[in-house]
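Researcher: Go.
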Amino acid sequence: MAFNSWRGVVGDIKPIMRPGALEELIRMLPQGVGVIPLFLNIRYGKVETYKLAVTEYEPLIAKLAEAEVDLIHAEGAPPFMVLGHEAEAKLLERWEHEYKIPIFTSGTNHVRALKALNIKRFIGVTYFNAVFNCERMGRAKYRATW
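Model: Structure:
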């Protein structure tokens, strides 16, 4: 599919249907970059919900690949965080190989930023409760390593 966005087109998969973040993204992008947004409908902040949600991204990635976007942002940190860093990386590698389009998540951007700034330790803050965070990581304490 041909687009008239001369700088390229970003496929953006949002986990929640609500206004605000999409408009902010579009305002930040340089002129000439188009955005094709698709939405999941995640409603509950539970580990089980996020584990199931990861499978819902792939049909939308396929749809964006078919539209021939230049880049895909699979948004939503929790659905990918419940996988863990290594599983997320393997999933993205498989998707990129299958769909031949660069794909990134919020988590991969965070890791790139921390590496670029040579950050060795940081404190992560989330709006999720301690039970969710511990259950998500499968242990009582978590220390990020990469």
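Model: Residues 95 and 103 are 8 Å apart (CA to CA).
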